[in-house]
């Protein structure tokens, strides 16, 4: 972070821009929530913050995914981008800028930097021959490979040979090592920095930064050569200075650059340090303040995989547990920078113990006692402080100090643990002082007033501290406490001091902040859902399934989805119209023996009567028809 000439503290934080060949998953949510938490904290600390996220929309993967979906690349990216843009507000994420690499402002920056480096001699024309992973959009050298699979994703790679422009990354090897040595915080955590240094010392080779239009048309054109498009990673990394206003808004760029922190997954750290830093050095731009690489999430102890069906859908998590509970779990469960394990059981335990028992119970019983004993008014602290009172106040001040240190160090989960130690101590304070007993016994109001003021003030401070993590729930607590100040406008150095709570404010009892999740009831609901989907054996027997052979196939005019098929069922030939053209060509489906539902009522599709239905399985990778595994007569009944 830095201060401009007006001494205004500024802070710039980014997520990676997410590749839009797929829908958002837990990894995308984790990085973006972390960035949002840090951005909100910095605003609370008085910084002028720029928080950006966005989408990476060029490259071969996009072309391949678009072809499978029978869309143009732009149609595909426009569609998938909405899934990201629509998700972030649901997760209470408040970004300042959303950058798309297909935007004109970004294209201009990419071409300008590319041209600048070409004129400088740091980009030159040559020929590339080597290994390329399409899913990772990554080039690999022979020395980096142990077999013909990608070291990152494990999938098969292809050897390509074509004309290419190269970036002289080798020229900047010593300068890069020197920079990292002088700026030890620029790559974090420490273990990732050491890995990067080791990689650089092994020797940097010039990087291919274009593809010919014979192999790839979907990308940003090289400004001086119409036969080439710019490599997707070279294009994507420049988004960070596009957002900061490079060559479009000088004042903005000077304000926010290089006070930037990039949050990335550990799998893309080398791109964001080795390639990105040297690109900036070549262009005469200072590298960012820090690149922080976080770990990966396993799901129930296993690697996340579409084929295993264990991909965590953030939309489902929001629906089932709420956005703030999901945010809390991801930030609390694992040390930021380390790998983590996600399971619904672990999430439910966090909700029930941390959120419902600790925080929720603290709020609900405090509000209830203020309502009962002080007619909804926050009482005054009027009597001499006892030992318990002093301990609570001292812990509050210590908590705020430690919290600030941990948040500035990006020790996010430790900051939450610090808050929860204070929450548990406040609950213990209530148990030790037993205000409900004092209230029932009509004891002098002074002591009871002191106790409930102290607890209410603790909740006020806790709410300020949890706001970056759970902004929605923090606002609910704030409102129940009777506070009218906008949490967004609070400042820790001004408002997070003991004794700022004004007596006489009316509390507003409301709904339970974090209801407990009843595991037995949840299990009953899940069993009930499964039972609802069951059908009787007699109902199943009504379905007439038979083996049929495709003897004729033709495309249905006026549509890009339908095939008209003639199916031999032994004693008859049926016509069936099926929406499988995206997955099966006429040539590919001819002669296949497939499973047909024969006793469906015929329907007309594009004027053709369809007399049945094909059975198929569908997943994220596409569609596959159900077939038989050995030779069997057409018309045979499936039982």
From TrEMBL:
Catalytic activity: tRNA(Met) + L-methionine + ATP = L-methionyl-tRNA(Met) + AMP + diphosphate
Names of required cofactors: Zn(2+)
EC numbers, comma separated: 6.1.1.10
Organism superkingdom: Bacteria
Short motif 'HIGH' region, span: 18-28
Domain TRNA-binding: 539-639
Compartments, record wording: Cytoplasm
MF GO annotations: ATP binding; metal ion binding; methionine-tRNA ligase activity; tRNA binding
GO CC terms in record: cytoplasm
Primary localization class, coarse: cytoplasm
Motif mapping: 'KMSKS' region: 303-307
Biological processes annotated in GO: methionyl-tRNA aminoacylation
Keyword list, A-Z: Aminoacyl-tRNA synthetase, ATP-binding, Cytoplasm, Ligase, Metal-binding, Nucleotide-binding, Protein biosynthesis, RNA-binding, tRNA-binding, Zinc
Binding site for Zn(2+): 133, 136, 150, 153
Free-text comment on the cofactor: Binds 1 zinc ion per subunit.
Role this protein plays: Is required not only for elongation of protein synthesis but also for the initiation of all mRNA translation through initiator tRNA(fMet) aminoacylation.
Stated family: Belongs to the class-I aminoacyl-tRNA synthetase family. MetG type 2A subfamily.
PANTHER family: METHIONINE--TRNA LIGASE, MITOCHONDRIAL (PTHR43326:SF1), METHIONYL-TRNA SYNTHETASE (PTHR43326)
NCBIfam families to which the protein is assigned, alphabetical: metG (TIGR00398), metG_C_term (TIGR00399), PRK12267.1 (NF008900)
Subunit structure: Homodimer.
The protein, known as: Methionine--tRNA ligase
Gene that specifies this protein: metG
């Amino acid at each position: 972070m830095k201060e401009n000439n007006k001494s205004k503290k500024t802070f710039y934080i980014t997520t990676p821009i997410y590749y839009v060949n797929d829908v958002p998953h837990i990894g995308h949510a984790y990085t973006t929530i972390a960035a949002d938490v840090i951005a909100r904290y910095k605003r609370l600390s008085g910084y002028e913050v720029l928080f950006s996220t966005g989408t990476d929309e060029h490259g071969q993967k996009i072309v391949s995914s678009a072809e499978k979906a029978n869309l143009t690349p732009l149609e595909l990216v426009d569609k998938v981008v909405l899934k990201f843009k629509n998700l972030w507000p649901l997760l209470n994420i408040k970004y300042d800028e959303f950058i798309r690499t297909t935007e004109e402002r970004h294209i201009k920056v990419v071409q300008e930097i590319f041209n600048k480096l070409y004129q400088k001699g740091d980009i030159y024309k040559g020929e590339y021959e080597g290994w390329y992973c399409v899913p990772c959009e990554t080039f690999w050298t022979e020395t980096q490979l142990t077999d013909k699979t990608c070291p990152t994703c494990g999938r098969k790679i292809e050897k390509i040979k074509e004309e290419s422009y190269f970036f002289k990354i080798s020229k900047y090897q010593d300068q890069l090592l020197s920079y990292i040595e002088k700026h030890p915080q620029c790559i974090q955590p420490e273990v990732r920095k050491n890995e990067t240094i080791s990689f650089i010392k092994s020797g940097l080779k010039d990087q291919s930064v274009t593809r010919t239009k014979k192999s790839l048309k979907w990308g940003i054109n090289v400004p001086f050569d119409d036969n080439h498009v710019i490599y997707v990673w070279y294009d994507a990394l420049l988004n960070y200075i596009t957002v900061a206003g490079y060559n479009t808004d000088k004042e903005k760029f000077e304000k926010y650059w290089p006070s930037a922190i990039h949050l990335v997954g550990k799998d893309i750290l080398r791109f964001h340090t080795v390639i990105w830093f040297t690109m900036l050095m070549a262009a005469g731009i200072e590298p960012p303040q820090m690149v922080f690489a976080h770990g990966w999430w396993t799901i129930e102890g296993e690697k996340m995989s579409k084929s295993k069906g264990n991909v965590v859908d953030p939309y489902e998590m929001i629906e089932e547990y709420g956005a703030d509970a999901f945010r809390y779990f991801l930030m609390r469960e694992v040390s930021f920078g380390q790998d983590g394990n996600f399971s619904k059981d672990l999430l439910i335990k966090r909700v029930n113990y941390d959120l419902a028992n600790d925080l929720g119970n603290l709020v609900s019983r405090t509000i209830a006692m203020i309502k009962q004993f002080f007619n909804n008014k926050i009482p005054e602290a009027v009597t001499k402080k006892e030992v318990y009172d002093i301990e609570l106040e001292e812990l509050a001040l210590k908590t705020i100090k430690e919290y600030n240190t941990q948040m500035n160090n990006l020790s996010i989960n430790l900051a939450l643990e610090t808050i929860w130690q204070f929450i548990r101590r406040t609950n213990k304070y209530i148990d030790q002082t037993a205000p409900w007993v004092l209230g029932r016994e009509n004891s002098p109001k002074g002591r009871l007033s002191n106790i409930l003021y102290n607890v209410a003030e603790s909740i006020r401070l806790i709410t300020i501290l949890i706001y970056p993590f759970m902004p929605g729930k923090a606002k609910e607590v704030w409102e129940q406490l009777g506070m009218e100040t906008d949490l967004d406008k609070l400042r820790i150095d001004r408002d997070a001091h003991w004794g700022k709570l004004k007596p006489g404010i009316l509390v507003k009892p409301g709904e339970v902040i974090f209801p407990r999740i009843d595991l037995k009831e949840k299990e009953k609901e899940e069993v009930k859902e499964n039972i609802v989907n069951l059908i009787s054996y007699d109902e199943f027997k009504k379905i007439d399934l038979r083996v049929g052979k495709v003897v004729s196939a033709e495309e249905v005019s006026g549509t890009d989805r339908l095939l008209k098929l003639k199916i031999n069922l032994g004693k008859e030939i049926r016509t069936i119209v099926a929406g499988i053209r995206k997955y099966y060509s006429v040539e590919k489906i001819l002669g296949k023996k497939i499973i047909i539902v024969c006793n469906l009522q015929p329907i007309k599709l594009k004027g053709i009567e369809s007399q049945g239905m094909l059975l198929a399985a569908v997943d994220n990778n596409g569609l596959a028809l159900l077939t038989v595994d050995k030779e069997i007569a057409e018309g045979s009944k499936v039982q």
